[in-house]
């Protein structure tokens, strides 16, 4: 699943590429993946063609003004169309909220990229993975712009979703209200982490770091890397951590995430950048995805353990 550095990479790239582009039309091939309104999109979804038609109608004539991120949620801000008001009333701008879930991908294709790639991209981060011409069987939503450029939304597992929310409804979005502080802001302090640890003292530390209500945007990849640098095993119960260990964990959260952003994310599964290229953070992983390999620091063999359905990787010598 794309985490904070991957989502931030998409945000930064789409901000440059989409700004002031006007939507000519949209196509939806997987009706269950789109919705309208601030309500939570359930994992168990039923296709609603009426919502699909409204979704497409609402987008026409809107212009992208900004792309933002909250935790792992992408927020596309769109201008008020002119001269017609929104079909749902309100007459103001709308936002498109997108969660990539496990395998969601955005590819922005303009004439220049199309000529360079021939419209073919790898959906998997393997050199032997076949090139796929877009739109492909995993392309579920397409946005067409009046200048001829195209934005494809691909999702191999179809867990992702996108929903349109009016500006005056945005404060009703449950996900946005429940997310914890952003780890790269001043609001996320050592006290924030220790307070969460006090409340969840029976939890495993990896699970605490991955809880979006505690800290927004950290998932399986970066929790492993943060804990490696802090010298703490992912299986440690929070109550067993000393103040020094908790401080070390807090100390490494920002540097690890910032490095991930600078490397344009970790392309270790299905994540690709908006031009189809790969992020480079995987080259700098110390433990994530390296079970059975030698630790880059001490030479011990990296081990892995299951925690609540997720895999935690660690060095048995460097982490206690």
Short summary of the structure?
By secondary structure, this protein is α+β, with helices and mostly antiparallel strands. Helix content is 26%, strand content 22%.
Describe the structure.
It is globular, with a radius of gyration of 21 Å. Helix 1 (4-18) runs parallel beside helix 8 (243-262). It is built from eight helices and 13 strands. Mean pLDDT is 94; it is low at 82-90. The protein has 320 residues and is an alpha+beta fold. The protein has two domains: 4-178, N-terminal domain of MutM-like DNA repair proteins (Alpha-Beta Barrel); 190-314, Helicase, Ruva Protein, domain 3, CATH 1.10.8.50.
For the biggest β-sheet, the strand order reads: 2-11-5-4-3
Order of helices and strands: HEEHEEEEHEEEEEHHHHHEE
Helices, by number, come to: 8
CATH class of the largest domain: Alpha Beta
CATH topology of the largest domain, which one? N-terminal domain of MutM-like DNA repair proteins
Shape, per Cα inertia axes: globular
Mean pLDDT: 94
Q: Could you tell me the number of beta strands?
A: 13
**Major pleated sheet:** 5 strands, mixed
